[in-house]
Amino acid sequence: RDPYAPNIGDFVVVIHGRRVYPAIVGDAGPTFKVGEASLRMAKEFNPNANPYRRPVSDLTVTYLVFPRSADDPKRSPDYAHWRKRCSELLDEI
Fold it and tell me: Stretch 50-66: mean pLDDT, rounded?
């Protein structure tokens, strides 16, 4: 098992322009695809985004994954907690 591979539940910071968004890894695979976010996240980038319209088509989004950072046990989505935890992880860099 790769200690640097992302796992479901690991915390992620999504960077677009000058904005930083907290997130978690929600699913995995295929192994060659990285950088897909939820529709909720897409609408933060572009309010006109939908399942058929990408929020951005260029390489302006960065995903910073913190391997092995998932809460244990897993818990319900709590955006305030995600924001706090992602901020703590960023401070450790």
Answer: 84
